[in-house]
Design goal:
With about 450 residues, the chain is mainly α. It contains 19 helices and 2 strands. The protein is flat, with a radius of gyration of 31 Å. The relative contact order is 0.08.
């Protein structure tokens, strides 16, 4: 039996560094990098001190103003005509641009959090230098630190630029969108808007948009389930059919279906929209063959909602089945043939082999991919927008049609006539919560996760 080792007490506390450390250690609590300068690590010292000086320069010149204006998003909300006593004339004051104020305010908060993080790392470095000096340990020289950035700390060097990119192009826009959900930013307040708390959430969940949100949410979930299940199931069947014994030219058949996937999706969808049009080739063929008496409105503005929804699911199958076929083919080709042969010797037919051996192993491998496909279908903007445009429109909905998903409705709220930016931000948050919660729950329940 192994004896549990007692935890070692901390080598030093910040209180000890402050009380027993030298002047450089004490000064590092106020000016970052001073302790590094004192111990010959001038590159790190310059970096810390330079960033601190730049931050306080920005804070004095712009930061304080940006943070203070973030509280009310600008004092002037509407255009005002006031009398200037000094000039003796009337002047027009334009409203403050709340969009810019909010953006720079969020950026200021991010920079403030960033400088706090750097300050903490500065304190840690100061404490480590104090401990090394106190215990007579080796202190890294300037050259040793520079070399470590391309050796033992190479991961930190390589991650610096990607992290900055993520902060600038992912975190900042996300926080900006989340902040917008707590304002009254819409077509009535296009420039000067204010904080309104959870009013936009209440409006979407129980206000005038609730009659649109819940039906569209229901259709979004139905669409995501049907689109994922159909492409997976028929993709597996197609792969098994091609891999069956007696099928010749298997590579040719795979290539034919891969071409469908290789063609850009927007091209396939636009051509399919023309093919299914009221005056399109499909209706003309059916009329010429005498199968229908009148053209069928598959995806038009006056189409039957059920017909339009079934149509987008079927068209999505045309686009998505080749992907599932390729993945399933790779799995089928690597299945343990001894198990299949043993099952056949025991008298199992083809369906029993598929149900008990082939399908469970395909599902085991593809479960994480299916979760990803499901989330992708929740946010599948292209199929709906390029094929139906959300039609047929529903008079009971606000800015949405019967085939609109949450993501296309969000687009309509931003670029449509209503321009309800705050409501679209709320939808973005709700879509994220829905996707994240489902992903976490579903992925943790997969056998691939449990056995990983």
């Amino acid at each position: 039996m192994f004896k549990r080792k007692d935890r070692k007490p901390p080598k030093a506390t910040y209180r000890e560094v402050w009380s027993k450390g030298g002047w450089a250690s004490k000064l590092s609590f106020f000016l970052m990098g001073i302790s590094s300068f004192k111990n010959g690590q001038w590159v790190r010292g310059i970096a810390y001190l330079g960033i601190q000086i730049a931050f306080f320069g920005w804070l004095i010149s712009q930061g304080i103003s940006a943070l203070s204006m973030l509280s009310n998003l600008g004092a002037i909300k509407t255009k005002q005509v006031v009398f200037d006593k000094q000039e003796g004339v009337y002047i027009t004051k334009l409203p403050d641009n709340s969009v810019t104020i909010l953006l720079f305010g969020v950026l200021a908060v991010l920079l403030l959090v960033g400088i706090i993080f750097l300050y903490v790392t500065n304190l840690r470095a100061t404490k480590k230098l104090y401990i090394d000096n106190r215990d007579g340990e080796h202190i890294e020289t300037n050259m040793e630190q520079l070399k470590s950035l391309f050796d033992s700390r190479l991961h930190i060097t390589l991650m610096t630029i990607p992290i900055i990119g993520i902060l600038a192009f992912t975190v900042l826009p996300t926080l900006y969108m989340i902040s917008m959900a707590f304002t009254n930013y819409d077509s009535k307040h296009p420039i000067g808007f204010s904080w309104t708390g959870f009013a936009a959430f209440k409006n979407v969940l129980s206000g005038d948009l609730a009659g649109t949100f819940f039906p569209v949410l229901g259709w979004t979930l139905i669409w995501a389930i049907c689109a994922t299940a159909t492409t997976f199931f028929f993709g597996v069947l197609l792969a098994m059919l091609i891999e069956s014994k007696g099928i010749k030219f298997k590579g040719v058949w795979r290539t034919i279906f891969v071409i469908v996937y290789a063609v850009p999706q927007f091209v396939s969808l636009l051509l399919m929209a023309q093919f299914l049009d009221l005056q399109g080739p499909l209706n003309n063929i059916l009329l010429n063959w005498g199968l229908i008496a009148h053209p069928i409105n598959f995806i038009g503005a006056s189409a039957n909602p059920l017909v339009a929804r079934i149509t987008v699911i079927v068209v999505n199958m045309w686009i998505g089945i080749p992907v599932s076929m390729l993945v399933s083919t790779a799995i089928i080709q690597n299945l343990p043939q001894d198990q299949i042969e043993a099952a056949r010797i025991d008298g199992a037919n083809a369906f029993q082999v598929f149900r008990s051996i082939t399908f469970p192993q395909i599902l085991f491998v593809m479960a994480p991919s299916l979760i990803q496909q499901f989330i992708g279908n929740i946010n599948n903007f292209n199929v709906i927008y390029l094929l139906t445009g959300g039609y047929p429109m529903n008079n009971n909905y606000v800015g949405a049609g019967d085939t609109d998903l949450l993501v296309t409705w969000l687009y309509n709220l931003v670029f449509g006539q209503t321009q309800r930016y705050n409501a679209s931000a709320v939808l973005g948050i709700l879509i994220f919560i829905l996707s994240a919660v489902f992903s976490l729950i579903a992925y943790r329940r997969t056998n691939a996760f449990k056995e990983g």
